[in-house]
Amino acid sequence: MHKPMSEASISLEPADDRLIYLDYASGTPVDPMVTAAMQPWLTGVGSAANASASHRIGQSAAAACVRASEQVAGLVNASPDEIVWTSGATESINLALLGAARFQSERGRHIVTCVTEHPAVLKTCDELRRQGYDVTVLPVDSGGLLSIDAFVAALQPDTVLASIMHVNNETGVIHDIDSIGMVCRDHGVLLHVDAAQSAGRLPLDVRAQGIDLLSLSAHKLYGPKGVGALCLNRQRSRRVEPLLFGGGQQRGLRPGTLPTHQVVGMGQACELGADHLSTEPAKVASLRDTLWMNLQQLDGIQLNGQADQRACHILNVSFSGVDGESLLLALEDLAVSAGAACTSDGAEPSAVLRSLGCSDTQASSAVRFSLGRHTSAEEVEQASMRVVGAVTRLRTIAEPLAQQT
Ligand SMILES: *Cc1c(COP(=O)(O)O)cnc(C)c1O
What we know:
Largest sheet: 7 strands, mixed
Number of helices: 13
Distance between the termini: 31 Å
CATH class of the largest domain: Alpha Beta
Order of helices and strands: EHHHEHEHEHEHEEEHHEEHEHHEH
Number of strands: 12
Bound molecules: pyridoxal-5'-phosphate
Radius of gyration: 22 Å
Helix content: 25-40%
Number of domains: 2
Oligomer: single chain
CATH superfamily of the largest domain: Type I PLP-dependent aspartate aminotransferase-like (Major domain)
Strand order of the largest sheet: 2-8-7-6-5-3-4
């Protein structure tokens, strides 16, 4: 997270009209239809109802949660009883990796993942390593893509689990999950896919793609923060060990009272995501391409991530001679990210970009623009002008300094 300019500039109110929001990869606005669906569960007796209670309102909360499971399942071609509600993708990923590794530990203790994964995956793998598991972290090429041959070669007789993200959150690069799923199926390896960035943007089908465990987050998909889901493909009749213990909710797999409003919101968000899938990604991709075209008025810029293998919403650009964090500060009315929005320490150049072969300088001069459902052509034009202006200005300031040294 980049540092705000000064304490005085921090507002507790949502931002003003001048702000152009191009940070959909770190959080999407809640769709008004999602807010409307959540409303009955946020007021009056609806807000009291516990889905585990046997009275009428409790049962209607339970029914609303089942309906929401159907909506999530519908987006990924799962069945509703395969959906486990969590607090977000981070928790889903922890449950998937720790839970599956523990359940499989008699069979083997080797796990395969990829260097560009989200910290929720990489840090969980670090924890598994501390617990005696063996983790192979595969590299990517300069486009951010994983080699299927390298993936196959990394599998060992004791490999039980692989975790590969669908769409990278910094570059938007799409991994070939279909091929990885096929390899995993052939080798009897469980496949976990982090789909936080791809849900609602690319078709997902846990059956056809051979995905055993799929992590989702509502707030990347026009739903509320604080809720996510883990989809467990039961056709492969595998299980995961729970991480939490308590009441018997969700078959003991993730106990605790279901947050009806959050769950209903995520369900509605997934249904909308499925409805929009045939039209929205193309529209967003076209706005992203316009942004990239406009930015090419500038010299010395580089697109990060394989151009023809990207999801619709992310544009990651390095601006030579400009520090990404400084550019962000110069663009105070533009909400974009420098490097990874999800790591706490903004000072480090992005590890994802460095793994694509970017130098530290290139990585720290990168800005991630991410677009979505509510982005307009007008905002793209405005944002382009502001970025071109700011980069030009920063470069003119930097040049005489560079000549002096
Ligand atoms: C945002 C994100 C996560 C974490 O999701 P939360 O719901 O915020 O915990 C995990 N993986 C990817 C790819 C993400 O973009």
